[in-house]
């Protein structure tokens, strides 16, 4: 049985990692290379690096930035933003990307998905689909125009899979930065429509939302951005909670597997006697 994955999304705007709220409000976090180093050391399964300003501002991907960040990353790295030509895909792969995320280019020129898949294999193509819930149901969202299209996301996901996408990255615009949890109806409808893995994103507040989406949908990976940035070892804590319910990788020394958590998924204090005993434990520096 394939293990479920926990993925961190690093959203970059003007070369700074940011927190996104509803695709409209952005708060600065820090440097991409530092963010990737922390997420890697905390045991994340994969990282999706999305430059949201590159396509909108007609800029090239910042290859040097990605090259520096990739040196700090020892897990599969997907890079998206600003991709319009095959030579850019080649350069991103040379800079350290393991996969590319195709959003606007796939929407405007879906044959490009097949071109990348033929060059690098389906497993290297992650088709990114932003979705907005409207009065007429779920619709694919064009973030450059800030409006919904008339396309149903399940139909679009099928088309992307037929053209060679290896994975679908489904992102709920409505839930982005809200901490209201994943949109289960949207996610299940997309997973039911395709035969390839689906990554869900948008709305996760804590690990409880990941447990829920894994238990109630057929999604292959749960992704989150904002809440991973604000608590040290947030990845380890989240994965230890999910691990109790799902088959995921949990290999870091600090795995919190024997800890308990409150209703907000925060660590509860260990007994004083246990804490005293831990003072004399020798823990070797971990190498990822």
From TrEMBL:
Q: Which UniProt keywords apply?
A: Amino-acid biosynthesis, Histidine biosynthesis, Lyase
**What is this enzyme's catalytic activity, as reactions?**
5-[(5-phospho-1-deoxy-D-ribulos-1-ylimino)methylamino]-1-(5-phospho-beta-D-ribosyl)imidazole-4-carboxamide + L-glutamine = D-erythro-1-(imidazol-4-yl)glycerol 3-phosphate + 5-amino-1-(5-phospho-beta-D-ribosyl)imidazole-4-carboxamide + L-glutamate + H(+)
Q: Which is an annotated Pfam family here?
A: His_biosynth
Q: In which pathway does it act?
A: Amino-acid biosynthesis; L-histidine biosynthesis; L-histidine from 5-phospho-alpha-D-ribose 1-diphosphate: step 5/9
Q: Which InterPro entries match?
A: Aldolase_TIM, His_biosynth, HisF, IGPS_HisA/HisF, RibuloseP-bd_barrel
User: Biological process GO terms, please?
Assistant: L-histidine biosynthetic process
What EC number(s) does the entry state?
A: 4.3.2.10
* CDD domains linked to this entry: HisF (cd04731)
Which GO-annotated molecular functions does the record name?
imidazoleglycerol-phosphate synthase activity; lyase activity
The record describes its quaternary structure and partners as: Heterodimer of HisH and HisF.
Q: What does this protein do?
A: IGPS catalyzes the conversion of PRFAR and glutamine to IGP, AICAR and glutamate. The HisF subunit catalyzes the cyclization activity that produces IGP and AICAR from PRFAR using the ammonia provided by the HisH subunit.
Query: So what family is this one in?
Result: Belongs to the HisA/HisF family.
Listed PANTHER family? IMIDAZOLE GLYCEROL PHOSPHATE SYNTHASE HISHF, IMIDAZOLE GLYCEROL PHOSPHATE SYNTHASE SUBUNIT HISF/H IGP SYNTHASE SUBUNIT HISF/H
Q: What is the protein name stated in its UniProt record?
A: imidazole glycerol-phosphate synthase
Q: Which gene name belongs to this protein?
A: hisF
């Amino acid at each position: 049985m394939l293990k479920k994955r926990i993925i961190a999304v690093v959203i970059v705007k003007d070369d700074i990692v940011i927190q996104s709220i509803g695709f409209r409000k952005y708060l600065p976090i820090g440097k991409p290379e530092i963010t990737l180093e922390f997420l890697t050391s905390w045991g994340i399964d994969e990282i999706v690096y999305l430059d949201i300003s590159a396509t909108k501002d007609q800029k090239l991907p910042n290859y040097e930035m990605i090259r520096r960040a990739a040196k700090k990353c020892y897990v599969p790295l997907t890079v998206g933003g600003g991709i319009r030509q095959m030579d850019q895909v080649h350069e991103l792969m040379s800079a350290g990307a393991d996969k590319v995320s195709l959003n606007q280019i796939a929407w405007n020129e879906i044959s490009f998905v097949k071109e990348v898949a033929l060059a690098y294999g389906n497993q290297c193509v992650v088709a990114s689909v932003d979705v907005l819930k409207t009065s007429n149901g779920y619709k694919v969202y064009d973030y450059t125009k800030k409006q919904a299209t008339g396309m149903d996301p399940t139909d679009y996901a099928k088309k992307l899979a037929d053209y060679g996408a290896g994975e679908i990255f489904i992102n709920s615009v409505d839930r982005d930065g809200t901490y209201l949890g994943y949109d289960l109806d949207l996610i299940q409808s997309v997973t039911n429509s395709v035969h390839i893995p689906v990554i869900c994103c948008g709305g996760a507040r804590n690990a409880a939302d990941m447990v829920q989406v894994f238990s109630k949908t057929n999604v292959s990976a749960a992704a989150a951005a904002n809440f991973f940035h604000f608590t040290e070892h947030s990845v380890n804590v989240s994965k230890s909670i999910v691990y109790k319910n799902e088959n995921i990788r949990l290999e870091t020394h600090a795995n919190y597997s024997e800890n308990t958590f409150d209703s907000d998924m925060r660590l509860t204090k260990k007994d004083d006697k246990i804490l005293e005993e831990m003072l004399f434990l020798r823990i070797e520096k971990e190498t990822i």
